[in-house]
Amino acid sequence: MPQIPKLDSTDRRIIRALQSNGRMTNLDLAAAVNLSPSPCLRRLRNLEKDGVITGYSIDVDARIYGLPVTVFVRVSLENHTEGVVANFERHIRDTPEVLECYVMTGLADYLLRVVVADLEDYERFVRARLHPIGGISSIDTSFVYGTVKKTAVFPDVGNVRR
User: Using CA atoms, how far apart are residues 147 and 131, in angstroms rounded to an integer?
Assistant: First the structure.
């Protein structure tokens, strides 16, 4: 099993700064975390090499992009044999409308975050993408009609553990 890297407060400040603005230059990042540029870049490269930072991305307004409807879908499987689970997860990985899929405890087995253009598009998603997978016992849908908070920035670990 790979060893999990130990992060110190400076590593976490670098991560939080980049989560807030992934396009900042190393010079700006170094200033934001109170380091000189060379040690900052060395730490950043180590965070990437160690798999702490797994990639860089951008946030896009889904409404402007043309996918204004966000749906949370709870899926329960008929049974949990290795084949049924593997088949479901393989199909979900290959389904572009599904942005996130979590294995859950509780009443549903999976929670999906799905984006679609409209209600008819969601119906097409269910009929053409989910139903053909097979092995699904129930699908429970919640449509998002507002967002109170959305962030990719982790809380400061020092402030969480009180």
Answer: 29
Alpha-carbon distance of 69 to 128, in angstroms, equals: 18
C-alpha span between 106 and 141 (Å, rounded):
16
Its pTM surpasses 0.90: no
- Show the tokens assigned to 81: 């044999």
9-13 contact pairs (CB < 8 A, 24+): 9/158, 10/35, 10/43, 11/43, 11/47, 11/52, 12/154, 12/156, 12/157
Per-residue tokens: 74:
């709870």
Gap between the terminal Cα atoms of the chain: 30
* pLDDT confidence bin for 159, thresholds 50/70/90: low
pLDDT by residue (tens digit) across 122-142? Answer: 999 999 999 999 999 999 999
Q: Please state, in angstroms and as integers, the Cα–Cα distance from residue 79 to each residue in 24, 45, 67, following that order.
A: 47, 44, 32
Closest CA to 11 of 68, 51, 66: 51
